[in-house]
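re: that chain from earlier
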Amino acid sequence: MKFIVEHISKGGGRIGRLTGLRSQPSVVHETPLTLISTVGGSAPHLTQDVLHLLVDKDAPLCVPAQHFCDHAKVLQSYKKGVAHFSALQGHSVCVTVQDAGKATPSGYNDKKGVSLWTYGGRRIITTDEYMELVEAMQPDWYEALSDADTDMKSSKKRISKSSTKTLVFLNQCIARHKASQKLKESALFVPLLGGHSEDERTGWSKSLVSGSVDGSTVSGYTMLGLHTNGPKVEKLEPTTIHNLVKASLDPLPHDRPRQAAGMWNPLTVLKLAELGVDIFDSTFPFLVTERRGALTFPFRLNRMRTHAEVSKRDNLEHQNKKLKVSGDGPKAKGEEDISKNNGKQNTNIEDEEHSSPYEISLKDKSNISLTKPLLEGCECYTCKNFTRAYIHHLTIANELLAPVLLMMHNLHHWMGFFSSIREAIKTDHLGDLRALITTATFESNEERTEEDNRMFDDVLGSRRQQTDCQTW
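^ sequence. v structure.
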């Protein structure tokens, strides 16, 4: 693997070129990029043909070892690697230890290895077993085995144990990697640990570059220990992780890629990209799909829009949640009739925790007679061929087609978002992209928390200071 930093933006973030991969020696991937997250080797809800309607046939995949640890012997017998095994040959593969889309139970790792939760239950996997599995999967790059079982609630003792055990696992992985002929062309990413302690993170990163591990084998870094995966990750705000991520990244060399798996919300993705993270995954659009939502946050900066335009064209997509909660605002077409028929106030979404301001919910009854697409102007297959009313019907009827159409839209939207991130970094407009999303997402003062207000004011304040941007 070769990684070259081509441009560093004045406002933060960097553009890189990832090339020389094991399965794609001549293909160039521009960073920041998003991996296509998989479940059991397949993109969730999407067949190979449908996936290739949305992404390039050489787009990198993220394949958790957690899904294949019970099938190591099968892959060893197959001998062609997990990409061929999953009928996704042509795609490069990144192997992670855990599935970022599924919460990892805490407190189950020990000195022998790390607990992986498979379809058959809990299984402790040792370093030797993990490396044998990685050899059979034949990835382009992979994470070293680590005890990353820390989050914001972890004690100093737990963080210390995490670092101590991981250092042992890491050196064992490096030794096995150097001795393995099968991994000669695969790149090794080492974990960045330290929980939610800036000092621990700085100390861990400094130890990696000062000789505690063989640096000649290290091709990149992966940000771990900030969370234990799953939906709770989207609640981590940029202000919460800013100093922690910075503490991990500052001591590292700049010529190696950094990866951060997790269900990060769009504003947190922008903060991570600003701090220098290069590789993400697509677990967030999968999360939105699973709760039957459709991403609608704006991300196009091809022309700077006025505040009124943002409010009129984009913010409406994010205010379904407000309309059905307040009960006193303008009602969507068909909503008033439903309320009358039921003889009581309409409650569209039962649980606020199952939605986010970056999306609309297709469980929302206000969609029952809407003949417009999920997002006006979206060029995805779903938006060009189906209405909100139809997808709402599929959702309420629990039809299998509902998550397929929603995943097609959400993945298309997510890929477009990352394209805009790269363009914004190239043109030093990353702050404008953040302001666009923040304005549309937190437009209503009634819905903002105190933390949202601080973030909203900080973003708009920094944006007004950029004299090289057009006034909006």
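The first strand starts at residue 2 and ends at 8.
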